[in-house]
Amino acid sequence: MMNRNDLRRADINLLVVFESMMHERNVSRVGEKLFLGQPTISSALGRLRLMFDDPLFVRSGRSMEPTSRAEEIFSRLSPALDSIAAALSRCQAFDPASSEATFHIGLSDDVEYALLPVLLRRLRSEAPNMALVVRRADHWQMSQMLISGEISLGISQTLELPANARRKGLRPIRPMLLRADGQPGELGLDEFCRRPHAVVSSMGNVIDDSDRALGLIGRQRKVVLAVPQFSALPMLLADSDMIAIVPDYVALAMSGSGGLRAEFAPLELPQQELSMVWRAATHNDPGERWLRARCSAFLGEQTEVQIHPAMNRSFISAVA
User: Fold this and answer.
1) pLDDT band per the 50, 70, 90 thresholds, residue 56
2) Is the overall model pTM greater than 0.85, yes or no?
3) Which of the four CATH numbers 3.40.190.10, 3.10.620.30, 2.40.37.10, 3.40.50.300 does domain 175-270 have?
């Protein structure tokens, strides 16, 4: 086994290249990710093969597949690199007022549409020189983006996470009914089932929690439209009898602009949780800690809002 003195022969830059190759399996993509030329990456792979006395990656079509030895090295190396990054970050100071840091975050479509505008305004009030790079990431994509390092922080309804990721719940996601028609009063269950429904799904799914809840009481609805993002809903619902079930913060953002109103659905729908997730490698980074603290404060708090007159009392009590 290598002792501590032998570590002088190791180049941490090579280890970063190795980790990126394990994720990307392609020399060109590793070069793009690390901002290095392809010859530099090829040279680094040659030195890595000498260091570990193993081919490490074998070409298979357009992909470079890792050997069993590379898989073994990666299982031990990745947590170690996280620890090194965390240790080094503690030595750095972070002043939001003067920082020009760039943060890479992943947001689900509902969060990007309804919560990013107010979050960005408040972040920039404290850190006017920062840059925010936002990637669209639903809960199916979040894990891979964290593993690859494309993002350091993600906010969505999160299901599965890498073993070394951290998570914090921000707020419940309360489902609300959104409608554009002028019919007075709230919809009853019969009308809810009769009306055509629109759903938002990045995967094109038309079955969701509403259908499962209806199935429990022996009822069903008719979905006539599935769209991939929330921003399309206001125009699609306008001048129609279609309805949609959306998170409460989306309903608030859409009904606040007029033409749409929100209310509780006439049946019990399960609540999900909006979560913040991040890479263990950035857990102690001062800038990332500041960003997580601000996201937690701004997205987890019950912000005081102006309620649109068309919104009913049941919705007001849900967000107040």
Assistant:
1) very high
2) no
3) 3.40.190.10
User: To the nearest whole number, what is the mean pLDDT of the chain?
Assistant: 85
Q: How far apart are the first and last CA of the chain?
A: 60
Fold of the 4-89 domain: Arc Repressor Mutant, subunit A (1.10.10)
Residue 243 has pLDDT above 50, yes or no: yes
Q: Which residue has the higher pLDDT, 198 or 24?
A: 198
Which residues touch 145 (CB under 8 Å, ≥6 apart)? 106, 135, 137, 151, 154
- Which residues, 6+ apart, have CB-to-CB distance to 234 below 8 Å? 180, 254, 257, 259, 260
| DSSP notation for 260-292 | -EEE--SS----EEEEEEEEGGGTT-HHHHHHH
Which segments of the chain belong to CATH 1.10.10.10?
A: 4-89
Q: Tell me if 253 sits within 8 A of 112, measured CB to CB.
A: no
| Residues above pLDDT 90, as percent of the chain | 50
| Band (1; pLDDT cuts 50, 70, 90) | low
**Cα separations in angstroms, 274 against 81, 103, 173, 220:** 29, 20, 6, 27
Query: Does the domain spanning 102-171+276-300 belong to CATH 3.30.70.270?
Result: no
CATH code 3.40.190.10 region(s) in the chain: 102-171+276-300, 175-270
Q: What is the CA radius of gyration of the chain?
A: 24
